[in-house]
Design brief:
The protein is mainly α. The chain is built from 12 helices and 13 strands. The strands form 6 sheets. It has a 3-stranded antiparallel β-sheet with strand order 2-1-3. A two-stranded antiparallel sheet has the order 4-5. Strands 6-7 form a two-stranded antiparallel ribbon. The longest helix has 84 residues. The radius of gyration is 61 Å and the shape is elongated. The termini are far apart. 8% of the residues are buried.
């Protein structure tokens, strides 16, 4: 069997639909492939075979890039567009009568008896155009909003959504306590309110030995053992107070120990600073003394040189000797020595005054 025999050609207009005068005219314009009246008459270059455009594309398997090789025959098209015919749905009630140009628009947009596809995504049903609105209002693929949680979904999903996912939907308690609870609150209900769930007595941590039972029984026990629970609670509070007192005492002892350590550390640091200050002052005194010794040694050497140069002049010329200048120079040297001593004494005294010993330091001295 050849490929051409497997191709199905769709007939756009049946020749039987045309009225008397037009029926005779269209006899010369029948498509050899679909056997219907030519729809957009076309032919290939270097060919004399005229067919419907869609039939030609199917037969030759022509792609979009090759459609430029198709020649439209406008003269035939204009002749056919003026021919009058009835609607192909006249046998089921359509009363349309008009030319072929009007017929195209009628079939594509207006004929109430034309079978069309449902426009909703996912739906594959075909219905008469006249019933399209009714179908869409009932179609399983129409878009709706959940009345409880307002989530948007397809109508066919609403049942599964309510039974499984909707957080606002009320469902029966899984422990069969008889209550209807919103799905989003079911965990809280089981934890806090459900009477059929097994729980412990809240006073177990205080010493109550009542066994675990359903919440209904625990509530009854709470009423019956009120005095016993109060006694257990008082014992627990007293024990906690004793524990807290011991902890407070331990903390206070630690604070005292830390304070002593801090005082010891401060005292040691001050003592070190004092020692370092004394060392610095001693170094300064040594430097000053060295300078004085160097000056004195220089004076002695000068005197020796003068004595050596004046060996011949062993006797002092008392007549020319300036006693007043001699005594004045000696007094200045003495005063300078006294001033240096005072400076060193004041420095040491000032350092001692700047670092008074605190009460805590005096304890360690």
């Amino acid at each position: 069997m050849s490929n051409k025999e497997n191709i199905i050609y769709n007939k756009f207009v049946d020749p039987e639909l045309f009225l008397d005068k037009s029926a005779k005219i269209i006899e010369d314009y029948i498509c050899p492939l679909c056997k219907g009246v030519l729809n957009y008459p076309s032919m290939l270059k270097n060919s004399d075979k005229i067919t419907c455009k869609n039939c030609l594309i199917k037969e030759k398997k022509i792609g979009k890039l090759e459609e430029k090789n198709i020649i439209s025959i406008n003269t035939i098209f204009e002749i056919l567009e003026k021919q009058k015919l009835n609607c192909r749905n006249k046998y089921i009630g359509c009363e349309f009568e008009g030319n072929l140009k009007e017929y195209r628009n009628h079939i594509l947009n207006n004929c109430n008896y034309e079978m069309i596809n449902c426009p909703l995504e996912g739906c594959e049903e075909k219905i008469f155009r006249i019933y399209l609105e009714d179908h869409i209002s009932l179609c399983d693929y129409r878009i709706i909003k959940c009345p409880k949680c307002e989530k948007i979904m397809k109508y066919k999903e609403i049942i599964e959504h309510k039974n499984t996912f909707c957080e606002e939907e009320e469902i029966v308690c899984p422990n069969k306590c008889g209550n209807f609870i919103k799905r989003k609150l079911i965990d809280e209900h089981l934890k806090m309110n459900c009477d059929n769930i097994i729980v412990d007595c809240p006073y177990n941590k205080f010493g109550c030995r009542y066994p675990s039972k359903i919440r209904k029984e625990i509530r009854r026990h709470m009423k019956d053992a009120l005095e016993e629970h109060n006694e257990l609670l008082l014992i627990y509070i007293n024990d906690k107070e004793e524990e807290n007192k011991k902890k407070i005492e331990e903390l206070e002892n630690k604070i005292v120990s830390l304070e002593n350590n801090v005082n010891n550390y401060c005292f040691i640091q001050k003592k070190r600073k004092r020692k370092n200050g004394k060392k610095k002052s001693n170094k300064i005194n040594k430097v000053n003394n060295n300078k004085k010794n160097n000056i004195n040694n220089g004076n002695i050497n000068n005197n020796k040189n003068n004595n050596n140069n004046n060996d011949d002049e062993n006797e002092i010329n008392l007549d020319n000797f300036d006693f007043e200048k001699y005594f004045i120079d000696n007094d200045e040297i003495k005063n300078n020595n006294n001033i240096n001593k005072d400076i060193n004494y004041n420095k040491n005294k000032k350092y001692k005054d700047d670092s008074p010993i605190s009460l805590n330091e005096s304890i360690f001295l």
